[in-house]
Amino acid sequence: MKRLDPKVFRLPVERIRSGWYSDAYFNQTKRLLELEGRHPNVTMQVFQRHDSLLGGIDEALAVLRLCSGRTRENGGWEPGWAKLEVSALPEGAEISPLETVLRIDGDYTLFAHLETVYLGCMARRSLIMRNVRAAVRAANGKQIFFFPARHDHWLVQTGDGYSAHVAGAIGVSTDAQASWWGGRGIGTVPHALIAVYGGDTVAAAQAFARRFGEEVNVTVLVDFENRSIRTALAVADALGERLWGVRLDTAADLVDADLRELLGENAPPGVSPELVSAVREALDAHGHGHVRIVVSGGFTIERINEFEQRAAPADAYGLGSALLRGSNDFTADIVTVDGRPGAKAGRQLRPNPRLERVL
Question: What mean pLDDT do residues 303-316 have?
Answer without folding.
Answer: 98
